[in-house]
Task: structure prediction
Amino acid sequence: GESVGLHLPTLSVQEGDNSIINCAYSNSASDYFIWYKQESGKGPQFIIDIRSNMDKRQGQRVTVLLNKTVKHLSLQIAATQPGDSAVYFCAETGAGGTSYGKLTFGQGTILTVHP
Amino acid sequence: KAGVTQTPRYLIKTRGQQVTLSCSPISGHRSVSWYQQTPGQGLQFLFEYFSETQRNKGNFPGRFSGRQFSNSRSEMNVSTLELGDSALYLCASSFKGPLSEQYFGPGTRLTVT
Result:
């Protein structure tokens, strides 16, 4: 039958606001989590990663929070800019075996930043 | 350092044909993974190669195959194309695979008519 397209969550913010994008993951054995940004016509671009032995990691204008208890990941973007408008994906992977080289991606969130 | 490159960027094929896509990883990266991206299914893992060996494979039919060469460059092949194979095919390279950053190429947009 015909496949149903993914209905991506959307987040619309004003320039200068802080943005929070959330992601729920399912595999409690996942060891490594990554946030990617994908702009139209481009491949996913690495933003920030975090390992399962951490609960917070900060980069330039971005912070990733990991809550393993509820299997939740979030990406915080400070002072969001129009250039941040894109689709954001969380991805997870494990340490080996069936996880080699395999990232499992979330459905994505569309972030729109209004000037 | 040059990024991941994929060729061709765009491709139009007819049902029943086969296609080969190419990926050149970042210099020094030995792991190459392939993904299919569609509006309906999102990003799905196809397979991963490391030092010319397939280490992992996703849930795709046998029509999808790949290989990796001694210089780490990789190709994927899709035989007997179906309309549903229309997608953006992405490859990603990393230094060693698990628990290391994967860097994506721009993708090959395949349209099957």
About this structure: The CA atoms of residues 41 and 86 of chain A lie 11 Å apart. The interface with chain B takes residues 3-6, 31-32, 34, 36, 41-46, 49, 51, 89, 91, 93-96, 98-108 of chain A (CB under 8 Å). Strands of chain A lie at 10-14, 19-24, 32-38, 45-51, 56-58, 62-67, 72-77, 86-93, 104-105, 109-114.
